């Protein structure tokens, strides 16, 4: 299975998502989007394929979101894409592309819907168990 992850290695959610992909026996194509930002067309296409808006791809925390006035609901997709192109840190992560679809994987276990069965237990960095020893998703409270 060919899988692409738009990844930030400094992000715990992104690291957990990458680890879940690997726990399914897949070595994905890892795009460190801060080093190699996707172009405007690709960002728009990823949003469309994920069934979300360009605005839904914006990250607020730890970014220049507020300083750039991006909360303004009157901004167009093109203006938001301009901001993402200029400041790739604004692109929320991790975005995962697989033959089963595209998703902004927040929380990280959202990636399970895009993958084949897990090959064993998986526990997030923070200690939360999301997959049992049989590769089945653990119900969350």
How do the helices and strands line up, and which of them pair or pack?
Layout: E1 4-7, H1 12-23, E2 29-32, H2 40-50, H3 77-86, E3 95-98, E4 101-104, E5 122-123, E6 129-131
Can you give a write-up of this model?
This protein is α+β, with helices and mostly antiparallel strands and 141 residues long. It has one domain (4-116): Glutaredoxin. Helices cover 23% and strands 15% of the residues. The chain contains three helices and six strands; from the N terminus they run βαβααββββ. The protein has helices at 12-23, 40-50, 77-86, and strands at 4-7, 29-32, 95-98, 101-104, 122-123, 129-131. A four-stranded mixed β-sheet has the order 2-1-3-4, sandwiched between helices. A two-stranded antiparallel ribbon has the order 5-6. β3 (95-98) and β4 form a beta hairpin. It is elongated, with a radius of gyration of 16 Å.
């Amino acid at each position: 299975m060919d899988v692409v992850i738009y990844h930030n290695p400094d992000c715990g959610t992104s690291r957990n998502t990458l680890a879940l992909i690997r726990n399914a026996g897949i070595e994905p194509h890892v795009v460190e989007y801060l080093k190699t930002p996707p172009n405007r067309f690709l960002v728009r296409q990823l949003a469309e394929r994920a069934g979300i808006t360009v605005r839904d791809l914006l990250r607020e925390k730890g970014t220049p979101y507020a300083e750039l006035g991006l909360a303004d609901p009157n901004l167009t997709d093109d203006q938001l894409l301009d901001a993402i192109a200029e400041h790739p840190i604004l692109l929320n992560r991790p975005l995962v592309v697989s033959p089963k679809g595209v998703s902004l994987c927040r929380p990280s276990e959202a990636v399970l819907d895009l993958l084949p069965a897990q090959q064993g237990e998986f526990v997030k960095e923070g200690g939360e168990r999301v997959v049992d020893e049989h590769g089945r998703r653990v119900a969350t409270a």
